[in-house]
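Appendix C: a fully annotated inverse folding record. The material below is reproduced so that readers can follow the format used throughout the book. The structure is listed first as tokens, followed by the designed sequence.
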């Protein structure tokens, strides 16, 4: 009877380890790079969390969660010579004004999101010089993100909007 219980526990614990979670260390950072010579390789990440610091004679080394295999995702900001966008007033009580002035006719996709990522408003407009008024009167007070995708090159710009009563 005792052998049966031990064998059962042994197989049960092995089955549990088969279904356990695995951890993947990732870093979201603004910059990083790798350099390599014949004798040394250096990988760095700006903004990584330091979990250990080693000091020696005249040197300092911090070790964190940096992984040498990384994926870079970039957001193309709207260049100043392409056009201008003004979003005002911020904070606002009920009306948000957006002025667009581009060097040529553009398609603009507007999306207003709440802090949970829920889409509160979605709108597409086309033009070169546009003044758009958005009513926020039906929305509760809080923080929202106004995201804009502009043109075929997918320039992206996000504004943090504060609605107050």
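Designed amino acids, in order:
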């Amino acid at each position: 009877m005792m052998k049966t219980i031990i064998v059962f526990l042994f197989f049960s614990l092995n089955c549990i380890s088969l279904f356990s979670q695995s951890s993947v260390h990732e870093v979201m950072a603004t910059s990083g790079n790798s350099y390599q010579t014949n004798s040394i390789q250096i990988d760095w990440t700006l903004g990584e969390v330091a979990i250990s610091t080693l000091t020696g004679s005249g040197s300092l080394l911090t070790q964190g969660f940096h992984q040498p295999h990384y994926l870079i995702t970039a957001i193309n900001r709207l260049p100043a010579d392409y056009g201008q966008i003004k979003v005002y007033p911020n904070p606002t009580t009920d009306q948000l004004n957006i002025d667009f002035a581009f060097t040529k006719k553009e398609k603009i996709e507007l999306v207003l999101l709440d802090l949970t990522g829920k889409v509160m408003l979605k709108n597409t407009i086309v033009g070169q010089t546009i003044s758009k008024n958005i009513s926020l009167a039906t929305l509760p007070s809080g923080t929202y993100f106004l995201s804009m995708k502009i043109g075929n090159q997918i320039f992206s710009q996000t504004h943090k909007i504060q609605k107050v009563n």
